[in-house]
Protein: CLN6 protein
Organism: Cnemophilus loriae
Amino acid sequence: PRVPSRHGAAKAEDTFKTSPFHLDLWFYFTLQNWVLDFGRPIAMIILPLEWFPLNKPSAGDYFHMAYNVITPFLLLKLIERSPKTLPRSMVYVSIITFVMGASIHLVGDSVNHRLIFSGYQHHLSVRENPIIRNLKPETLIDSFELLYYYDEYLGHSMWYIPFFLILFIYFTGCFTPVAEQSRMPVAALLLVGPSSLYYWYLVTEGQIFILYIFTFFAMMALVMHQKRKGLVLDSNGLFLFYSFIITLLLIAAWVAWLWNDKILRKKYPGVIYIPEPWAFYTLHMSNLHAAKE
């Protein structure tokens, strides 16, 4: 008889199975997120400029290339370990879109971060930046705005929407009827802090709070729906759910801290005010370093 695909469409006869905490995958996932994503701009700034000339890829770009390969691989391995049969087509389309969006972002982000060395200030809009404002002909400014659009809007959308979609798809399979299995091991407790802090950076720097909060609300709704069926989250589901809860608390603390910053308020108008960490850095920290020098 033909064996059904591991990622085939979900079927009614699927049974809920126990899935142990994926320490290896969650550890690698958290580590590479911190090193290859959060560490990208840091590596670009601290490493000598002579090693990576401005007309060549920076160290951060190589980090980004590695991230674009390793992250979809880890997401696929995570889906493979789900105790529930998950929709194969949706997973594949999400992974393909993720890689394309992250690759678009690689190019736009590379140029935008290299502009820092020329005096570009991330807390200002493209047209308000002194080095951009005086460009001639003025149509060049439109080109930089297009680059910013690919970096901050199109790239982020095609990167983060499938990313959170895959996490949610995996989350749907993290339920068990055995209450004793709904607990986090010590390893999960140790990883939940770094994981939450990274998601805080992802949401604030990527400006994807709406996507994040809708994913979180969908997770809460699913938890309440499954609870009525007598199902509870297993250790992997708890790890992901608690990471999102702590992330929300970190975002709230970040916004409260910078609530009265008039300059950042000008760049991030509207109801949802969530400043980017790198905008905060170029506004406050880079000036502090320059003063010390």
About this structure: Residues 1-13, 288-293 have pLDDT under 50 and may be disordered. The chain has ten helices and two strands. The radius of gyration is 21 Å. Strands lie at 175-176, 232-233.
